Amino acid sequence: MTTPNLFYSDLKDSYLFYNIAQKTKAYLNEHPDTHLYRMGIGDVSLPLCGAVIEALHEAVDDQAQAGTFHGYMPECGAPFLREAIAEYYRTRGVTLSPDEVFVSSGASDELGDILDLFDRSNTSLVIEPAYPAYVDANIMGGRKIVHVSSGRENGFLPAPDDNIKADILYICSPNNPTGAVFNRTQLKEWVDYANRNGSVILFDAAYEAFIEDDSLPHSIFEIDGARTCAIEICSLSKTAGFTGTRLGYTVIPKELERRGMNLNSMWVRNRTTKTNGVSYIIQKGAAAVFTSEGQQQIHSNIRIYKQNAACLMSAFDELGIWYCGGKNAPYIWIKCPDGLTSWEFFDLLLNEIQVVGTPGQGFGECGEGYFRFSTFGSPEDTKIAAERIKQLLKK
């Protein structure tokens, strides 16, 4: 008889965002004409920018002509897109070879797939609160997980501890869910720890485009020593609205080796075995993001999301509620008022003012008592939600 992957039985019964969806569905079944102000899941609300739409149309037309038709794409990414991404890094002072850039169908896919590079015996370190998929992907793979708690006392940005040994280190900056961002000194501590211990950092940079403080690093490869210990995983979902279009990219430096094996070469072998590449049409659209026109347009959209963040932060300032994030990230992480648990606060917002956020407990036990708001909603809904939150909590 076939034996299934028994590690699945170690997963929690349901996923955080599934629970939220079930609660909101039940509420709407009882109140079918109610409008919900959704600031829970981090899905964008603005359409793809004009430069991307134009490139997508051109790519579709290419597929209609024999002379410009594209079939299978290179498994690791089209050269034109890999070169565009490498040039994007050069504008921030990071030198990459295009063949250190791997095009993917999105950061979420890649964060799971990248574990193919590591033996099951490796221990993974997850800084919590954390994106739940980090934990779940390692449980599915049967790996031991070290949970490192962070909190308000360290700004949800913990330093490495040499008494804790781990092989795979998850760092997300700007962080989901807290919105906290590691500075250069803090990241250097993690890079040095990884090199001392022979660990590999999986650096989730999905939200780097939201950093507005020039002193903060967008990429781990801005830190000396990172090329021998880090893999960076990025996404166009939040940067350019590709949540429904699906494209991301992963950077694996050629210097990154462990036990005589080169991880860049291993990933080439993995991708050429397990994928047939990302669609030509989508890659053409993604390349437009990295043009000067595309950059201007996507940052225009990001400014709208930043205005949403400012609106919410103003409300929390008025209420005297502690929070982090918002300024350099699309998430705001607040302390639940009046000693409420995170799910109690979720129910209060949903039932009293029809606002949907994300309970902190779903991101790990140290997230209990906190709550995440996404700033990706429409400006109109965000303004109304902020006013409703103020009126509710002033009571």
Secondary structure topology:
Elements: H1 16-30, E1 37-38, H2 50-62, H3 79-90, E2 101-104, H4 107-113, E3 123-128, H5 132-140, E4 144-149, E5 168-172, H6 184-197, E6 200-204, E7 230-235, H7 237-240, E8 248-251, E9 257-258, E10 261-262, H8 263-274, H9 280-289, H10 292-319, E11 323-325, E12 331-335, H11 342-353, E13 355-356, E14 358-359, E15 370-374, H12 379-394
Parallel strand pairs: 1-13, 3-4, 3-5, 5-6, 6-7
Antiparallel strand pairs: 2-8, 7-8, 9-10, 11-12, 12-15, 14-15
Helix pairs in contact: 2-9, 3-9, 10-12
Quick description:
The protein has 395 residues and is an alpha/beta fold. It has helices at 16-30, 50-62, 79-90, 107-113, 132-140, 184-197, 237-240, 263-274, 280-289, 292-319, 342-353, 379-394, and strands at residues 37-38, 101-104, 123-128, 144-149, 168-172, 200-204, 230-235, 248-251, 257-258, 261-262, 323-325, 331-335, 355-356, 358-359, 370-374.
Mind explaining what this structure looks like?
With 395 residues, this protein is α/β, with parallel strands linked by helices. The chain folds into 2 domains: 13-48 and 294-394, Aspartate Aminotransferase, domain 1, CATH 3.90.1150; 50-290, Aspartate Aminotransferase, domain 2, CATH 3.40.640. It is built from 12 helices and 15 strands. It has a 7-stranded mixed β-sheet, with helices on both faces. A 4-stranded antiparallel β-sheet has the order 11-12-15-14. Helix 2 (50-62) runs antiparallel to helix 9 (280-289), helix 3 (79-90) runs parallel beside helix 9 (280-289) and helix 10 (292-319) runs parallel beside helix 12 (379-394). The longest helix has 28 residues, at 292-319. The mean pLDDT is 96.
